[in-house]
């Protein structure tokens, strides 16, 4: 009978390790999470936390960035190398976007800033543990498939197909975790992807282009992982500075994706999805055909879903209102050709997609 390795636990025994050099912070978090039903332990330094991981098993580590001996970034790097099945959430008092990007690249599941809302922390913990379980399940399935391939060469094609499906499922869970943060309505990314693939039928894309288009539409808002919850979840009007933080998300998304070789083209689409046809968009003020066609396509459908979905600051509006707004912005915000093709699709088809991905 095999035993769990240090740093890893089965679902039924999940434990959380809270790491912060401020006793009041780690005690506040541990007390709150215990009230929510989580088993918690604490550590005052990164070194102490890493030592604990070496002798006991944990599912999640919540770590402050600024700590003596071993800071949160160093702790995260060591965890990703030594205990890859342990989920991590980084906490910091500094709203540093570059730090957020770096922690995501090192494998952090989420990023929260001080002062924090305890309910938001609780939701982040639940999301991280759910995503960890999904990744472990996917990894186990992949390992089983690899063993099958080695044992039975004739099963290679089927195994690779199943592996691709598992990768897709894991990606979709990650996007659901992003949607669940509350900055937009649930299933937003899946709807934009489905809308985009329907509209793509009106254009002449080959198979590889369609695959990149699907990934780009699904990942278009991935950069909002690096935007503080206090801004994403704000129910009222955003300040000019807060809008400035929101407008960083295409660049953050690009930085997250650009290091992944097969997502290079997708990273470029993500960077450009808030450019406007007349050159007044962001972050690069691209104009017309300078903007990738794929980004011009899912920009229309991102806007359509935004208008027809409930947001913290307003109720959903009708498809007719959305269509009118899109037509009114053809030639300025949107590519007129894309708008023309969008209008050719029957409203019933858009309604069917919205119903299928209603959450």
Tell me what you see in this structure:
It is a single chain. With 359 residues, the chain is of the alpha/beta class. The chain folds into 2 domains: 11-125, Rossmann fold, CATH 3.40.50; 183-356, Hypothetical protein af1432. The chain is built from 16 helices and 5 strands. A 5-stranded parallel beta sheet has the order 2-1-3-4-5, sandwiched between helices. Helix 2 (46-55) packs parallel to helix 3 (72-82), helix 7 runs antiparallel to helix 8 and helix 7 packs across helix 13 (293-307). The longest helix is centred in the middle third of the chain and has 34 residues, at 118-151. The chain is elongated, with a radius of gyration of 22 Å. The chain starts with 14 loop residues before the first strand and ends with a helix.
CA-atom Rg in angstroms: 22 Å
Tell me about the largest β-sheet. 5 strands, parallel
SSE class: alpha/beta
Shape: elongated
User: Would you report the number of β strands?
Assistant: 5
Residue share in helix: 55-70%
Write down the CATH topology of the largest domain: Hypothetical protein af1432
Q: Give the SSE string.
A: EHEHEHEHEHHHHHHHHHHHH
Number of separate domains: 2
CATH homologous superfamily descriptor of the largest domain: Hypothetical protein af1432
The number of helical segments is 16
Mean pLDDT across residues = 82
CATH class of the largest domain: Mainly Alpha
Instruction: Trace the largest sheet across and list its strands.
Output: 2-1-3-4-5
N/C terminus separation = 40 Å
What is the beta-strand fraction?
Answer: 5-15%
CATH architecture name of the largest domain: Orthogonal Bundle
Low-confidence stretches: 1-5, 7-12, 152-164
